[in-house]
Structure of N-acetyllactosaminide beta-1,3-N-acetylglucosaminyltransferase:
Amino acid sequence: MGDVLYQDGQQQQQQQVVVAAGGIVPGSVGGGATGALNGTDIFSTTASMDADAKLRSLLNCHDRDYEPYIGQRGDFWVMRNYIRAEHGDLRCHETITYTTHADYTFLDNLVPLLERWNAPVSLALHAPGTDFVPTINSIKYLRDCIPESHLVRQFVTFHIYFSSKHIPKLVPKHNQVLDTPYNCSLAIPYFNVSAAQLYKTQKKLLYPVNVGRNIARDAAMTHFLLASDIELYPNPGLVHKFLEMIARNEPVLQRKNPRVFPLPIFEVDNNSPVPRDKAELQELLRSGKAIPFHKRVCSSCHGVPKSKEWIAANETDDLGVFHIGKRIGYFVHWEPIYIGTHADPHYDERLSWEGKSDKMTQGYALCVLDYDFHILDNGFLVHKPGIKVLKKDPKRAMLAAKTNQLIKKIIYPELQVMYGTRKGCAV
């Protein structure tokens, strides 16, 4: 297939459709329609009913329930929707859910993420043994003790999971867990905690990254979701611009192949602000204060097709598909982070963060299923400030070697049976 370059705005429809975080309204976002997320019904005019119906019929999605649920997933106990966001039930087409995973020591990322995303977040927290209490305290602190607590309460749903071999001593019921508030004058529970202090580290547990990814993803109530890592911050305004693009349904979006929408990822140095738009990002790249993600660690894992052209292209008002790529050739080991749906293959739960390659097997499945990778022109992610350099870690290298054997000998043959093969696809 030849390159498909597509600059947005060529075929604007006569009636501009704009999607706010909570839904679609005609005209501009500044019109004061706050959407169902803020408790008001915005679908009151005929025009917006049409727009709403259009997105709903295009997506043909089903609303999902928002009930707390205790279940098992392999070896893990999972408390889904354990602490729920105040947005309540969502219609599947009205917004996008950022789905992610962490342990409590990463929760300093939640506010910068929310300030930019401003839409639902589904967060699976690994809290084995004695990590459970500081995890709950961290959630309480974030919900009650900071100026941005309203964002946390409004948008973040917390799920908790732990191995059946490492159950906490006491697990409150979902409707009682917040009964005792956190004393806000005490220390921030997730601040300055070293890995050595974690129960997980003391018990030499690996971080089950893909269990967390899948829990958070499965719990999302929206059709579209951005399965990402909590340290990756999206550019503001992405949600409504993306849904606006979907509602326009221009020819590039009418291809028959399954599709996902990868976001190019960047790192910025410690002293730089996280860029809020593409123009700011371009300036940081020019001055060397920003680089493509993992450029100094594994450039082929996150190299994006047409990345030089993407960086050179000026920002436009709308969001559009810049290029349709495939996970083949130079990009055969690409591990994209993308806006996708519940229909996309899951992540393999046998892989750990420490063993690396945790998204490679899913990438293979996407390739074999002939997914189109619709790279968006003005959407991107920026890692929490600080540029990564390759550190020698013999222990992790050993785990990575074991993981590679597991993938090669066991997982890859399974994937070939389950998904088939396609020329040019590789794990």
